[in-house]
Amino acid sequence: MAAKNKEPYQQAYYPPVPTKWVRYMRTSFIWQFYRFWVINLKILKLLIKSHN
Asked: Which superkingdom heads the taxonomic lineage of this protein's source (predicted)?
């Protein structure tokens, strides 16, 4: 349910802004490459378990 008190310039009116660390992690090629392989390995492990 949406908040009914939507007066301009109140804190609840603005979305949260990501920190510098969060922005770095979202754009870091090295981190994304690492996460890609971790997720792929998890999926592969799940597939191997399901086909046994």
From this structure: Bacteria
Domain boundaries, the chain: 19-50
Q: What is the pLDDT of residues 31-42, one digit of tens each?
A: 999 999 999 999
User: Strand ranges (DSSP E) for the chain?
Assistant: none
Stated pTM of the model: 0.58
Q: Distance (Å, rounded) from C-alpha 14 to C-alpha 3? A: 12
What's residue 41's pLDDT? 97
Q: For residues 3 and 52, give the distance between their C-alpha atoms in angstroms, rounded to a whole number.
A: 50
Buried b (16+ CB within 10 A) or exposed e, 18-32: eeeeeeeeeeeeeee
